[in-house]
Write a structure and sequence with these properties.
By secondary structure, this protein is of the alpha+beta class. The protein has a single domain, classed as 7,8-Dihydro-6-hydroxymethylpterin-pyrophosphokinase HPPK (Alpha-Beta Plaits, 2-Layer Sandwich), CATH 3.30.70. The chain is 28% helix and 28% strand. The protein contains four helices and eight strands.
Length: 152
């Protein structure tokens, strides 16, 4: 059975724009998965973190992988892009967050679905609203209106 999933992509080290574009292409090559929609790229200030501005996007996937298998693929792509985790919210070469996986609700030490902080972040909500407006409410957008973000 195939599921509709959404993944947030972010980077703020190296050539962040190219890294995000490459991640979109790489996600289309994940087994049993295809990218069905891609948002524009956005620039946003780090939230709860330091370092340079982030380049962000969201993709919609059609996948035959279960949430844990998809998460493993996302982490494999992050590692391939040189992702290190020296401390919480450190600057990163690539960050891939699984936002939703069908209607799955999950709360494990490794994965929470839907993503617990997605509604607090303009860098997730604006690109998500661009490709899947039914996934975002006007109230959610209003609550993040004070966060600095621009479409590139």
């Amino acid at each position: 059975m195939r599921s509709r999933a959404f993944v947030a992509i972010g980077a703020n080290l190296g050539d962040a724009r190219e890294t995000v574009r490459q991640a979109m292409d790489d996600l289309d090559r994940v087994p049993q998965t295809r990218v069905s929609a891609r948002s524009s790229l956005y620039r946003s200030a780090p939230v709860d973190a330091g370092g340079p501005d982030f380049v962000n996007a969201v993709v919609e996937l059609e996948t035959g992988l279960d949430p844990q298998a998809l998460l493993a693929e996302l982490q494999r792509l992050e590692a391939g892009a040189g992702r290190e985790r020296p401390y919480r919210n450190a600057p990163r070469t690539l960050d891939l967050d699984l936002l939703r996986h069908g209607d799955v609700v999950l709360d494990t030490p490794r994965l929470r679905l839907p993503h617990p902080r997605m509604a607090e972040r303009a860098f997730v909500l604006l690109p998500l609203a661009e490709i899947a407006p039914e996934q975002v409410t006007s109230l959610q957008l209003a609550q993040v209106a004070d966060q600095r973000i621009e479409r590139l």
